[in-house]
């Protein structure tokens, strides 16, 4: 899953786990846990750092790439909103809660 894709991109770039961890500024032990799927829910900030070093879109780490996925990729405005949320410190859980609240609110109307 995510770990397998991180490992695949890392190896394709010819990087060791230590090199990727150092360049991304993340703990090698955490990266190892991700790659071995011991940790399956990495933070957005972690994925952003790894994706940057691997020179891939974060979506490539989150799901299998295919022509259909590429066509459905997030447009620039959504990418900007996601980046703003990440940079402001909004966690995935907080963002999910916000979405759930809005779904509930719309059903109430």
UniProtKB/TrEMBL annotation:
Keywords: DNA-binding. InterPro entries: Cro/C1-type_HTH, Lambda_DNA-bd_dom_sf, SinR/SinI_dimer_dom, SinR/SinI_dimer_dom_sf, TransReg_Diox_bact_type. SUPFAM superfamilies: lambda repressor-like DNA-binding domains, SinR repressor dimerisation domain-like. The keyword Ribosomal protein does not apply. GO terms for molecular function: DNA binding; DNA-binding transcription factor activity; protein dimerization activity. Residues 65-103 form the Sin domain. Gene3D superfamilies: lambda repressor-like DNA-binding domains. It comes from the Bacteria. One of its GO terms (cellular component) is cytosol. CDD domains: HTH_XRE. Residues 6-61 form the HTH cro/C1-type domain. This is Helix-turn-helix domain-containing protein. The lineage of its organism: Bacteria, Bacillati, Bacillota, Bacilli, Bacillales.
């Amino acid at each position: 899953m995510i770990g397998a894709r991180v490992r695949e991109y890392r190896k394709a770039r010819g990087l060791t786990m230590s090199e990727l961890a150092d360049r991304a500024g993340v703990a090698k032990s955490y990266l190892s846990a991700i790659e071995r799927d011991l940790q399956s829910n990495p933070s957005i900030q972690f994925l952003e750092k790894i994706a940057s070093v691997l020179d891939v879109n974060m979506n490539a780490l989150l799901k299998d790439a295919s022509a259909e996925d590429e066509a459905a990729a997030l447009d620039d405005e959504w990418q900007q909103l996601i980046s703003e949320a990440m940079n402001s410190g909004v966690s995935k859980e907080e963002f999910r809660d916000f979405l759930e609240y809005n779904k509930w609110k719309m059903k109430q109307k």
